Amino acid sequence: MAGNNQQSRHASSSESSVAQKRTHSSALELGPRKKQSTQDPLVHHGRHFGCAVHAFCNVQTLISNGITLMGERDDEPEEDLMVVERREYAVFRELLQMAPRLEACIMDSSEEEVILIADLIQKGANGARADDTKGMKSAIIDWITPKGQSLNPHIPRNVKSGRGFNHERTGALLCPAGLDWNNTETRTKLVNGQIQVAGDQWPVFLYANYWYDPEDPWNGLLRSGLLVSALKHIFTSLSSVDQEPKATRSGNAHIHGMRFVTKASITYVATQAHFSLTSAQVFSRTDLVTNSEHFYNSILELLDDPEEKDEVDQLLIWWNRQVFPLYSDMERMPSKNSALARICQKHAEYTESAASVPT
């Protein structure tokens, strides 16, 4: 009974401790419509954590190792940590930043309470992944069907068996970059499994216009229209996929205060889209056919590689222009030649002139 009371008190305190969002919401901006929800705030944050920070994370181990790094190794320079430790610690810090008081709550809690916190966050991450998998399974059929045409043979929206390399359309999209789907021998080997596709053999659907340049493998990578539709479907709103501003509910990005695309969010939608195109029935991190966890980690490791920073920065700029144009710094500047721009210019000229007058 005492344990139940302790958990009850902790759940109550956690609600107030994680209420703040990582991104400040201005009182001068119209927020999302709110409705009554009984969902635990930790589950709420966990849903966004899994989509935008790390999808295949063991939250309990992450928090345990993070506490160790914050305590026992507090005096050790971060650059002295192993690469895996640095990456893991960065994810842990991201988790804490999603709810500013979460750090104090974790540090002041007992081991049993920390496990409860981790379980609630994990529940949110797992729940979001399951919901997104279910939703994208049917939606992706619309995105891969050419406008005004139909798929032949027809692919049912809620059936996976006819997808993957078993179908001309999904097979072409899943064909590893560098292989030719139009080559009969290659296609036959992919269909019958003679060619085993590893998670780091990325499919051509990740590329703009589904075209891969072996001489410049960064060209168009993670810029396909299919990925844009997938990210909008998960993070903004269902209607934004068709660029029709008719949604009556706010997207997940707005709800969670997300104002820019993250490397993990791009990787997450790529993984979800990849699974939706395959014939696999159940999303599993250890599935050797879709190899989802290896697929996810291989993309995220590339985007986190310091050597690729310039390319990644350009990629993020491109994505933010696709998904969050209203929140970019450029969009907040007065339009060129507008009355507001001219007023700002005249003010700057006056200020400069006044400053040059000797006193």
Helix proportion range: 40-55%
Which structural category do the helix and sheet elements fall into?
A: mainly alpha
The geometry reads as: globular
> How widely separated are the two ends?
78 Å
**Biggest sheet: strands, sense, closure?**
none
Mean pLDDT over the full residue set:
82
Strand fraction: under 5%
> What's the total count of β strands?
0
Number of DSSP helical runs: 14
Uncertain stretches of 5 or more adjacent residues? 1-23, 242-250
Protein model, in words:
This protein is mainly α and 359 residues long. The protein has two domains: 2-16 and 38-124, no CATH class; 145-322, no CATH class. It is 53% helix and 0% strand. The chain is built from 14 helices and no strands. It has helices spanning 2-17, 41-52, 59-71, 83-98, 102-107, 111-144, 168-174, 184-192, 225-236, 252-255, 263-277, 292-304, 309-323, 339-356. Helix 2 (41-52) packs across helix 6 and helix 11 (263-277) runs antiparallel to helix 12. It is globular, with a radius of gyration of 24 Å. The model is unreliable at 1-23 and 242-250 (pLDDT under 50).
